[in-house]
Amino acid sequence: MGSLFGEKARLKREAVSSTSVDRESQQTLLRIRSFYLLAGLAGGMFNPYMSTMLVHGGLGSTQVGLLMSIGTFISILIQPFWGLVVDRFQQMRLVLMLSVAVPALLSVFYQSPYFIVLTIIYTISMVFTATQAPMADSYALVAAQKANTTYGAIRFLGSLGTAAGSYLGGLYVSRIDISLIWIPFLVFNLLAAVLTLTLPSRSDESRVLQQSLSTGIRSLLGNRLFLCFLGGCLLVNQTLTAFNSYFVLSFEEAGGTLELAGVGLFIASAANIPAMLLAARVIARYGHERMLLIAAFAYILRWGIQYLFPVPWVMIAVQLLHGLSFGFFYISAVEYVSRIASRHMQATAQSIFNMVFVGLAGIAGNLLNGYLLEAGGAAAMNLSCIISAVLGAVLLGYVASRSRDREQTPVIG
User: Fold this and answer.
1) Percent of the chain whose pLDDT exceeds 90
2) Cβ atoms of 290 and 346 closer than 8 Å
3) Angle at Cα 264 formed by Cα 233 and Cα 234, nearest 5°?
4) Most buried one in 130, 205, 236, 399, CB count within 10 A?
5) 21-402 carries CATH number 1.20.1250.20
6) What is the pTM of this model?
7) Which positions ≥6 away from 367 have C-beta within 8 Å?
8) CA angle 91-142-192, nearest 5°?
9) Chain mean position to CA 281
10) Rounded to an integer, what is the distance from CA 154 to the centroid of its chain?
11) What local confidence, expressed as pLDDT, does residue 225 receive?
């Protein structure tokens, strides 16, 4: 009889513990989704209009490309330092908070007319911003696993925020002043920074961030298939700077207005939402590698249409392909990296991917597309994007043809 009561008590304790864990997981899920939403609002209102703001302030598009490339290059060099901070001191939450708080506070200085000042401000901002995606994604991947949901179901809040922010940004710059677009960026980022304080201080950081970035890079360089994957990502995603950094400028060149540009940005970000929500189901059917290839072809179609029909209404309508191109590509790539990396190398592998997908691709894209836009107009930029996306699709096709079933043994770590 005593053993029966003891067993009942044990089961009750386990049930209470399970309920507590489930409640904590749901709270963390809500908070990381809210973080994505606020960060999306901040970036959606500011990032697409930053190049236009700087050009209106007196810089040329080549100078803007150089400024952005310098900042992105320095941020890549500094990433191992952030890996050391997180690995050694387990300060994932602090790093995530700084990734939004520092750029927010520095945005005040974008009113400066001096190229050197703007370069320094952007570089410092990028040093901190570069850590946002891998840190937030690491939180999201762990939260998704604990709450029995998908990464896309969490990440889509970022696209929702970006969509709303892009549209509101268009209204803001057309009715107030583009030089003051940093104000909503400051507000939403500071709210996101405050929200990070409510995240768990140790959301499995010790599980997902245990090996150094240098160890991960050495493992990576020994895997030819993963290098081809990164090469494909680099070639495809560098074309995205033609949208992220230069869409508003090229849209104005085609005769569009700033307010209509906001509509185009809204459509692009809104198209990401169903892509994020449906990604898990589509990937389960076709696999990560095939989805990456399909998304790469969507990029080719996207740039091809804008090259052939450079008119405002077509440039707006074609943004419906943003979800099929960027949305499916990004989700597939992040989950592909998560699948092939060993358990203790998850965040390091995501950091390496982010360095290429955002860092190197951002440098190449901002320099090349900024120069082409100024030297040959939007037509030259779009043609270059078509060629780059085709080359990227070739590499991703090789990855898809060589990959085994989706349950393959991890290849990193």
Assistant:
1) 32
2) no
3) 10
4) 236
5) yes
6) 0.74
7) 65, 66, 69
8) 55
9) 21
10) 13
11) 86
What lies within 8 Å, CB to CB, of 361 at 6+ separation is 233, 234, 237, 238, 240, 241
Cβ-proximal residues to 376 (8 Å cutoff; 6+ apart), any chain:
none
Length of the chain: 413
Q: How many helices (H) and strands (E) does the chain have?
A: 19, 0
* Stronger pLDDT, 205 or 264, i.e. the higher one: 264
E strands within 206-272?
Answer: none
Phi/psi-derived region of residue 408, left when phi > 0, alpha when psi is between -120 and 50, beta in every other case: beta
What tokens were used for 265? 């940005």
User: Are the C-beta atoms of residues 127 and 75 closer than 8 Å to each other?
Assistant: yes
- pLDDT tens digit string along 202-250? 545 444 444 455 566 677 667 788 889 999 999 999 999 888 888 988 9
Of residues 264 and 212, the one with the higher pLDDT is: 264
pLDDT at 201 over 80: no
Quote the pLDDT of residue 90: 67
Measured distance CA(8)–CA(409) in Å, rounded: 40
Of 49 and 24, the one with more pLDDT = 49
| Residue among 257, 29, 9 nearest 142 (CA) | 29
**Which pLDDT does position 404 carry in this prediction?**
59
Split at pLDDT 50, 70, 90, the class of 22 is low
For the cut 90, the answer to whether the pLDDT of residue 279 exceeds it is: no
Q: Which long-range contacts (CB under 8 A, 24 or more apart) does 201-206 make?
A: 201/92, 201/93, 202/90, 202/92, 203/28, 203/92, 203/93, 203/138, 203/139, 203/142, 203/143, 204/142, 205/86, 205/90, 205/92, 205/138, 205/347, 206/90
Distance between CA atoms of residues 280 and 282, nearest Å: 6
